[in-house]
Amino acid sequence: MTAARDPQQMTRRQLIRHGAWFGAAVGLAVVGGEVLSHLATAPAADVARPTLRFAQISDSHIGFTGTANPDVTNSFGAAIDQINNLGYTPDFVIHTGDLTHLATPAQFDQVKQMMGGLNTPHVFTVPGEHDSVDDAGQKYRAAFGAGTRGDGWYSFDIAGVHVIGLVNTLNLKKLGHLGADQLDFVEKDLAQLSADTPIVVFSHIPLFAMYPDWGWGTDDATQALSYMRRFASVTCLNGHVHQLFSKTEGNVTFYSATTTAYPLPHPGVGPAPKPLTLPAGQLHDALGIREVTYTRGNSELALKEQRLQ
Ligand SMILES: [Zn+2]
Ligand SMILES: [Zn+2]
């Protein structure tokens, strides 16, 4: 199992491959395990600037056709444009899964090509269950898995923040599932860090019990979270539920993201989480992007939600 490898052995080559899949112009260096992007050379005058700025997008569902959003390509393109017009270059962009609707090669090609237009040095992803409908994630990993381990999980350090990308969309019964190999990875990955290192965790399905009746939770998340208990600041960002929601449990704050495709009902409203068709003109209000900033010295990350323009 690749998961048995030492987390320290995420090599420079792997990180470069991971960060550079959309172009060769990424100046990514690893020094003492820390990824240094352009922010390491920011001018000294720029002191008020947050230590880390990134954007989250989720659930683009490229390939979806239905009245809930007749043009998901257009709305995903609008989200990319919005990120490219934030007025600064995000240090990275994370897509938290359901990149595609049906995991076809054409859908993966399209979403990858579109994200290549993001103005950022690094694009990271985690898979949604729609990205592995027929092959346990093989096509997903062929397109987006460079530099990852196991079923596509990974971690990296950037600007003093430790980031973990998890895969909880395989081996599903009803709830999300991490599995023993991945839990082992998380435990070893975190063991080397000091407790004041801010931790950011990405997953598609929530790691908290948002609404288990609809599968909106992860059956073995408690185990993963137990390895995070000693850290001062843990921020878990997920997709899948297509709506904003946040919850704090002890040292961990969970934030569900909205989508760029179509809304789903609020938990328990209606019989099932099926795409909602809103009255004409209201769709973009239910879609959006998220900005996340971290400033060294603060314990919390700051989130800013933006409706799709
Ligand atoms: Zn989704
Ligand atoms: Zn999903």
How would you describe the overall organization of this protein?
The chain has 309 residues and is α/β, with parallel strands linked by helices. Helix content is 20%, strand content 20%. The strands form 2 sheets. An 8-stranded mixed sheet has the order 1-2-6-7-8-9-11-10, with helices on one face. A 5-stranded mixed sheet has the order 5-4-3-12-13. The longest helix has 13 residues. The radius of gyration is 18 Å and the shape is globular. The termini are far apart. The site of one zinc ion has 6 residues, from loops.
Name a few traits of the molecule.
single chain, 309 residues, alpha/beta, 8-stranded mixed beta sheet, 5-stranded mixed beta sheet, 7 helices, 13 strands, 20% helix, 20% strand, disordered N terminus, binds zinc ion
Quick structural gist:
With 309 residues, this protein is α/β, with parallel strands linked by helices. It has helices at 12-19, 72-84, 105-115, 138-144, 180-191, 221-226, 283-286; strands at 29-31, 34-36, 52-57, 92-95, 123-125, 154-158, 161-165, 199-203, 234-238, 245-249, 252-256, 288-294, 302-307.
SSE blueprint:
Layout: H1 12-19, E1 29-31, E2 34-36, E3 52-57, H2 72-84, E4 92-95, H3 105-115, E5 123-125, H4 138-144, E6 154-158, E7 161-165, H5 180-191, E8 199-203, H6 221-226, E9 234-238, E10 245-249, E11 252-256, H7 283-286, E12 288-294, E13 302-307
Parallel strand pairs: 2-6, 3-4, 4-5, 7-8, 8-9, 9-11
Antiparallel strand pairs: 1-2, 3-12, 6-7, 10-11, 12-13
The structure holds zinc ion (ZN) (2 copies).
